[in-house]
């Protein structure tokens, strides 16, 4: 057979590329030309993985722990997560409800296959992490987007859930803290969302991947409120293990068997080396490092949010988690892609256009990731000041 160029057909034709990748690519090209670029586009911690985790990974290699593991993950790691839910949230989970996955991405694809059938609709916020929309498209199902704005802290109201729910809606997927907005769903609102999903007979999935990277006192896991919900989480962000590709999901009891069957089929197991390395993530030494990093992110957030507001960007009252600021640029531009291209090409500041995350108001917003050090943030602010004068 002769391949004359790939033609997208079916569900694949609806999957859109990640614009942040284009920004990264262009930034790399400019760097090759000798330009100094401030990177605020990437959604990953600038810190490398904490030393105790790296050491545990090396030991796993030295000890030959390089084979497939059981599909839901190694028992000691699942037990660490059992303890984690107990100590951090006061939630008792049987180990069987936790499955280790190749990143939250692996968890989300598994859950999409577990929960969503062709023709069904899933409520999502707009803006949201873009891959989620694509996972739903790939199942020939329909992402049903709820536009959320700064005035509502970028999280949906119950009135909106009623308004956007359709006859084919079978699920509601939320994220707290959210990418790209860094806002959280406060406890009473999360409870209300659980109650709404129960009432409508919809499944509720909450992406808790940015838990740990929060700057508020109370960040509930949905499992504290309702054990019938689905959770996806990850070692990527707070635990600083993006490249190890390790995450987990929590499913209600009746779904355990099918979730295991999907795990066996979709990826056999998550990386064994990463799983053994992650055992060290729960040690006291590592915790100290991770908490110091969280404080560094908090300091960056405090600095950058004030500086951006002074420059005329419009931001939520307080960004409560993750490492993103989602800024309204309408005082400067009505085209976020053009704005980001200009900031990068002319001023050497790499940020991501809101069009990556939303279809409704993406042109009015840009995402700043404070995943770079204070010196770089100060340089970015000085450059932006010049650019926007
Ligand atoms: C909200 C959200 N969910 C899931 C993911 C996927 O993360 P990973 O597969 O690295 O665990 C990301 C990555 O940025 C994200 O922002």
Index terms:
globular, three-stranded antiparallel sheet, Aspartate Aminotransferase, domain 1, binds pyridoxal-5'-phosphate, Aspartate Aminotransferase, domain 2, alpha/beta, 389 residues
In short:
This protein has 389 residues and is of the alpha/beta class. Helices cover 40% and strands 14% of the residues. Helix 7 links the parallel strand 5 and strand 6.
In spatial order, strands of the major sheet run 2-8-7-6-5-3-4
Please name the CATH architecture of the largest domain. 3-Layer(aba) Sandwich
Distance between the termini: 58 Å
What's the SSE pattern? Answer: HEHHEHEHEHEHEEEHHHEHEEEH
Number of helices: 12
CATH topology of the largest domain: Aspartate Aminotransferase, domain 2
The percent of residues in helical segments reads: 40-55%
Shape: globular
Estimate what percentage of residues fall within beta strands: 5-15%
Rg estimate, integer Å: 21 Å
Uncertain runs are none
Class of the largest domain, according to the CATH hierarchy?
A: Alpha Beta
The CATH fourth-level homologous superfamily of the largest domain: Type I PLP-dependent aspartate aminotransferase-like (Major domain)
Average pLDDT works out at 96
Helix/strand/pairing category = alpha/beta
The overall number of domains is 2
Largest sheet: number of strands, sense, barrel closure: 7 strands, mixed
């Amino acid at each position: 057979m002769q391949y004359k160029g790939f033609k997208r057909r079916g569900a694949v034709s609806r999957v859109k590329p990640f614009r942040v990748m284009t920004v990264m690519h262009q930034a790399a090209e400019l760097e090759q030309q000798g330009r100094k670029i401030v990177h605020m586009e990437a959604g990953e911690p600038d810190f490398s993985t904490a030393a105790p985790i790296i050491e545990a990974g090396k030991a796993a290699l030295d000890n030959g722990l390089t084979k497939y593991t059981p599909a839901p993950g190694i028992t000691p790691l699942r037990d660490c997560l059992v303890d984690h839910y107990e100590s951090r949230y006061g939630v008792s989970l049987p180990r069987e409800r936790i499955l280790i996955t190749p990143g939250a991405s692996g968890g989300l694809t598994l859950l999409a296959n577990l929960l969503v059938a062709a023709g069904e609709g899933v409520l999502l916020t707009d803006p949201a992490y873009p891959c989620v929309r694509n996972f739903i498209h790939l199942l020939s199902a329909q992402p049903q987007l709820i536009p959320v704005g700064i005035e509502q802290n970028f999280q949906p109201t119950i009135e909106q859930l009623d308004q956007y729910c359709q006859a084919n809606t079978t699920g509601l997927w939320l994220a707290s803290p959210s990418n790209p907005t860094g806002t959280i769903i406060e406890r009473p609102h999360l409870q209300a969302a659980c109650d709404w999903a129960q009432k409508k007979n919809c499944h509720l999935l909450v992406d808790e991947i940015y838990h740990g990277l929060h700057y508020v006192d109370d960040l509930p896991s949905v499992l504290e409120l309702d054990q019938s919900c689905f959770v996806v989480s990850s070692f990527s962000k707070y635990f600083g293990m993006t490249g190890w590709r390790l995450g987990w999901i929590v499913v209600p009891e009746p779904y355990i068997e099918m979730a295991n069957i999907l795990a066996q089929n979709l990826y056999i197991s998550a990386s064994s080396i990463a799983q053994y390395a992650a055992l060290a993530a729960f040690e006291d030494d590592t915790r100290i490092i991770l908490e110091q990093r969280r404080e560094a992110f908090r300091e960056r957030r405090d600095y950058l949010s004030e500086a951006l507001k002074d420059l005329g960007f419009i931001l939520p009252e307080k960004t409560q988690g993750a490492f993103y600021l989602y800024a309204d640029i309408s005082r400067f531009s009505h085209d976020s892609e053009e704005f980001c291209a200009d900031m990068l090409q002319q001023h050497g500041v790499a940020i991501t256009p809101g069009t990556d995350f939303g279809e409704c108001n993406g042109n009015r917003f840009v995402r700043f990731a404070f995943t770079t050090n204070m010196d770089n943030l100060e340089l970015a602010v000085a450059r932006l000041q010049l650019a926007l004068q």
